[in-house]
Amino acid sequence: MNSKIYAIMKKEVLHIIRDPRSLVMALGMPMIFIFLFGYAITLDIDNVKITVCDHDKTKESREYIGSFASSGYFNISKFTDSEKELLYSLDSGYAKAGLVIPSGFGNTLIKNGKVEIQAVIDGSEANSTNVVMGYIRGLSYLYSGNITLKAMNKAGVAKIKNVPGLDANIKIFYNQEMKSRNFIIPGLIAVIMSVIMAILTSLTIVREKEKGTFEQLIVTPVKPYEVMIGKIIPYWVLGLLDMVLVVLVGTLVFNVPLKGNIIFLFFITGIFAFSGLGIGLLVSTLANTQQVANQVAMLLSFLPTFILSGFMFPIKSMPFVIQLFTVIVPAKYFLIVLRGVFLKGSGLVALFTEFIMLTIFGVVLILLSSMNFKKKIK
Fold first, then answer.
1. What confidence score (pLDDT) does residue 355 get?
2. 88 and 235 belong to one structural domain
3. pLDDT for residue 316
4. Mean pLDDT estimate for the chain
5. Owning domain of residue 248
6. Which of 67, 105, 180, 234 is placed for a possible disulfide with 56 were both Cys, Cβ 3.0 to 4.6 Å?
């Protein structure tokens, strides 16, 4: 290795070691992020608290209510005879849904009549509301089918065991248990790597400016590219170390399957790291204080990654104009790689487009920051 580059690297490593904030940020923040978001963010909805108002109190109504209790989706938190009390449980947040069973429910079913129950759902959270609606409808259809089967057998139409119908044999690939955590954790890794890489390197050049050593760096017989490489490599290594930590936590603590090749995963991570490093260096050459550099780097890395990468919101559901902006978000392609390697076991052939895009972003951002650094030196 070039002795000048090695000297710059050694200087930057000493900066990191002697600055506790950098070490805490480099090693502590990824752990805080993955534990906080890993446990806090979930799309799985179960044990929904439901209040039941049973005006019928017959065997049939109890069987219907029992189907909710035994499904695992609902937790019957309260029984009441007052519909006002049921609505109050929703207003107070004590329950997410309410079920009102009218009087004559059982008698109408015995006579093969049609009866309507009323389900009241707290719609303040649109996503969970749609899921709860689906649960209630599914359980009601299932109960209705069982009632129809009993009625046909009782009427002597035929002794049948099942109601004729169409059954879809559904096979789920890649995330068979349908756990949202398996989908979220790989996305979190993209968020963590984007933020950490950008923030850490955003402080490199601006730190020299604040301490008054930037001029000393300029007059040394070191070429601009040697300064850039010397400053990048320590943070690139730190980024790969962070990747090791978050992958270990994701697989061992959150039990996310890693089906793909781990060497390929770290190879792509190394390429993606240059995008984050490029953004951080570009910010560092433009900012004059570490506080400004930190805030701008957070803004440029966290928000696009969290909102426009497909981490939380499907890109195909966004307006077309917004979809165009997602094309220039490197984390979008890294997230596809992460989910492909973790859940599908995908390799370079399947992810070749993402590999090319990440390479282009890494080269372009490093070149931009290098050009701007040369202008600063001049």
1. 94
2. no
3. 85
4. 81
5. 19-42+179-377
6. 105
Rounded CA gap, 378 and 372, in Å? 10
Provide the token pair at 1.
């290795």
Q: What is the pLDDT of residues 61-111, one digit of tens each?
A: 888 888 888 887 888 888 888 888 888 888 888 888 898 988 888 888 777
Question: Are the CB atoms for 41 and 185 separated by under 8 Å?
Answer: no
Q: Mapped to the 3 state alphabet, what secondary structure does 295-362 carry?
A: HHHHHHHHHHHHHHCCCCCCHHHCCHHHHHHHCCCHHHHHHHHHHHHHHHCCCCCCCHHHHHHHHHHH
**Verdict on whether the full-model pTM lies above 0.70:** yes
CA–CA separation, 304 and 360 (whole Å): 18
* 38-63 per-position pLDDT tens digit: 887 776 677 888 999 988 888 888 88
Question: Same domain for 278 and 341?
Answer: yes
Are residues 204 and 144 part of one domain?
A: no
234: Cβ–Cβ under 8 A, 6 or more apart, which residues?
Answer: 9, 12, 13, 16
132 & 183 share domain: no
Phi, psi for 51 (deg, rounded to 5): -100, 135
CA 154 – CA 160 distance, rounded (Å): 11
The per-residue pLDDT for 267 is: 93
pLDDT of residue 63: 86
Alpha-carbon gap, residue 5 to 8, rounded angstroms: 5
Tell me the C-alpha to C-alpha distance, in Å, between residue 278 and each of 51, 237, 245, 273, 368: 54, 15, 22, 8, 8
DSSP E strands, the chain? 48-54, 74-80, 97-101, 118-121
